[in-house]
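I had to read the description of the data format several times before I understood it. The format is easy to grasp once an entry is in front of the reader. For illustration, here is how one protein appears when written out as sequence plus structure tokens:
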Amino acid sequence: MDDADPSQPVPQPGPQFGPQPDYRLLTRSFEQVATEVAKIENVPSISQSAEILQHMQQQTQQTQQLLLQMQGMQNQMQEMQDMQNQMQGQMQGMQNQMQGMQNQMQGMQNQMQGMQNQMQGQMQGMQNQMHQNHQQVQNQLQQLNTGFETL
């Protein structure tokens, strides 16, 4: 069987039941496994384990410190958010007060306009009355003059 071409599937005697193994794939897989096994010598020895463990503990402590700092920052951010909400509420209250004042001022302007219109009407009425009175006086003077001229 040494004469067989590895690129050609090897004929199997008898009936075939399902898919057959891919020998090229198996060969490549074994080569990859061999490469990875060769890398095992790069794994640190037991004597370095204590250093690795100590480094991991330091990393854990630093991570915990960072988490505490982050929690503090989150608390500060929440306080700032609360202050912002409070300020927004106060601003809304001030805006409502200003709107109320504007409404009152508008009402006062409307009242003043009404009073001005009423005063103008009364003044016009008084002018008309004075004109009529003046006219009556003129007529009466005319009658008196006519009466004196006839005497």
